[in-house]
Amino acid sequence: MAEKKIRFSCPLDCFDACSMIATINEGKVVKIEGDKSHPLTQGFVCKKGKKHLERLYHPDRILNPKKKYKEKWIDISYDEAIDEISEKFKKIKAHYGSEAVLHFYDSGYGGLSKTVDKMFFNYYGGATVHTGSLCWGAGIEAQKLDFGDNKSHSPEDLVNSKTIIIWGRNPADTNIHLVKYLTKAKKNGGYIYLIDPINTNTTKIASEHIHITPSTDGALALGIANYIINENLIDQEFIKNHVKGYEEYREYVKDFTLDYTEKTTGIDKEKIKELAENYSRNKPSSIIIGYGLQRYKNGGNNIRAIDALGALTGNIGIAGGGVNYSNKLIDEYIDGEVEKSKHYVKNRRTYSKTKLADFIMKAGNPPIKCLFITKSNPLVQVPNINKTIEAFNKVDFKVVIDIFMTDTAKYADIVLPATSILEEEDFIYSSMFSPYLNYSARAVKPLNGIIGEYDLFRILAKKMDIREYPDIEREEFFKRALKPIMENFKVSYEYLKNEIFTIRDRDIPWKDKKFNTPSGKYELYSERAEKQGISPIPIYIQTENEKKDYNLRLITPHFKDSLHSQHFAFEENIPVVYVNRNTLKKNNVHVNEIVKIKSKYGALEAKLEISSDIGDDIIMIYEGWWHKSGSVNFLTPDSISDIGEQAAYYECFCKIERV
Ligand SMILES: Nc1nc2c(c(=O)[nH]1)N[C@H]1C(S)=C(S)[C@@H](COP(=O)(O)OP(=O)(O)OC[C@H]3O[C@@H](n4cnc5c(=O)[nH]c(N)nc54)[C@H](O)[C@@H]3O)O[C@H]1N2
Ligand SMILES: Nc1nc2c(c(=O)[nH]1)N[C@H]1C(S)=C(S)[C@@H](COP(=O)(O)OP(=O)(O)OC[C@H]3O[C@@H](n4cnc5c(=O)[nH]c(N)nc54)[C@H](O)[C@@H]3O)O[C@H]1N2
Ligand code: SF4
Ligand SMILES: [Mo]
Description:
The chain is an alpha/beta fold. It is about 30% helix and about 20% strand. The chain binds ligand MGD (2 copies), iron/sulfur cluster (SF4) and molybdenum atom (MO). This is Anaerobic selenocysteine-containing dehydrogenase.
């Protein structure tokens, strides 16, 4: 058989949604590489992307439905698995109501075909599902209050910026296809500030790194605003015509003097001045916000305070401007069966995602009788894992769909295998950054006859006699989902399969200065916020440092070579904990020493390493390590942000103990 090449797309929960080429020989994928023809990928993918091949044929992949029997896993047939699940679902619904099933999901696979999990539970009558987010919730809601929506400039437009502030994002590790545009902007004479409490790989790309005390970004932004207002560096015209609530906001920021801001943020006041001067004078200026600085109790207001700088200086709706956080460009035009299924929900119940454990334990009526988990690994990724395990143990029936036997799958009663992207036909897009919709062709048939989620839920619905569930082929499902794109942009389904689609006239959001807020203006003052019981204007909320013994703040950002927990699967070592020399000395410990890191919620062992550029009393461990190594979320609290119910992972205080 001749060699064949197909184009597919990386489905990982990443900013970039890369396009890739798979080479298939004699029914086996033999090589995968970056797609040179894709405008964003440009032939280059990261290590995680390349791992799709290894993971496809990995000997530890789950290839059969499995059932726990006397604490051991036994392989069962699909018929047995589907029979058991459907019987349980019917009984639970009859006795307790459909909300006695809690469907936990995340974005472990970013393709359209696997959004059918939500659709299934809607037709079931409505399960218990989350509000809020483990990921980006505070920022998403903050920008909705300010702008009315979540939009970003196209990557190409960044090259027009003269001043760029990367605010708590680490593109060198998490968003690698942004890097070439940053480099280009710099070559064009642009100046790039990076604001981050720790030294990351992005430091090398930036023109300058400004260290900030964690969770004080709101104070910095308000301090910059006060300076800009006092020096009359504001854009009067923009404020007069397109901003609501300037007066109230101006009153509030008066307290953020340079002295106060310096004291609060740990940044020299001359530097704050320079930042404010450059951002407002050396225009156009853009801000790229990451998700790190909103994993705090004050995360939402911090983002609102940063957004406000764009409005004050008129750096919105212009080439080279913008406050970029996420990019729900394609998502806005996705419709179809999943949307339609929402009308079939009779008994939806919600809980705040961060509070999963509390909710399970105190669900009330009906209690949680089944946990159904898709596209996520909550027993590694949610905060306060000890409490979450306790909650899991209280639920009689747990089902997990995954590719590998994760720490979450191990706690299940039934585990169903998931297909790899190379075994699926799908459409992939990201709502974080990439403005493209990628078609992903199937490279090979699923190994061992694995039934992918699209068919699995269809079979389950049939078995349960859910007649309304759309019994349609996948292509029809895609066509219905993509109909708004095809109609609005006059493109055919074949076009979407063969070309790389984007919406060109959306390169610069808010060009018309018509915002999707209730007033139609940019809202420094938001009545919607007020109604929700939060401050109508962005404020700085000082978060209390936990005192006494637990005086080290733990930050747990994302690791370059793993997408959350996924690529830590075969890691046997214990985590590395990064500290500076002062912290080492103060705690009377040494480099390379194995120590115990303890918080009020749990403990783990880790090996000490020096990171010279980390602040005093800050410790850093990457998130994603499995239980066998030591998961950081054994340490984190299940606290929530001020806006958007975001998990405040970094409000985590620890101590170091010698072992
Ligand atoms: N390699 C890789 N790439 C990924 C992921 C991954 O797991 N691995 N995950 C993907 C997902 S789901 C997401 S949400 C994104 C996240 O993408 P990013 O936002 O880039 O990454 P984070 O690690 O969340 O945090 C970014 C930075 O915030 C900094 N930070 C922490 N606290 C503060 C603070 O108080 N102020 C400021 N200014 N900065 C602070 C951290 O030090 C870190 O460098 O990445 C995506 N891409
Ligand atoms: N301490 C700390 N914790 C954090 C964060 C942090 O910064 N610090 N970041 C948070 C963020 S930003 C996020 S987004 C969350 C992410 O949390 P999760 O999404 O739970 O993280 P992953 O480890 O990527 O888990 C995804 C799982 O989906 C599986 N999977 C892959 N493909 C498929 C498929 O086709 N079908 C099914 N059913 N499963 C599949 C993978 O094998 C993997 O086990 O973690 C959060 N947790
Ligand atoms: S993880 Fe992100 S950067 Fe890496 S291949 Fe996938 S989409 Fe591209
Ligand atoms: Mo995320």
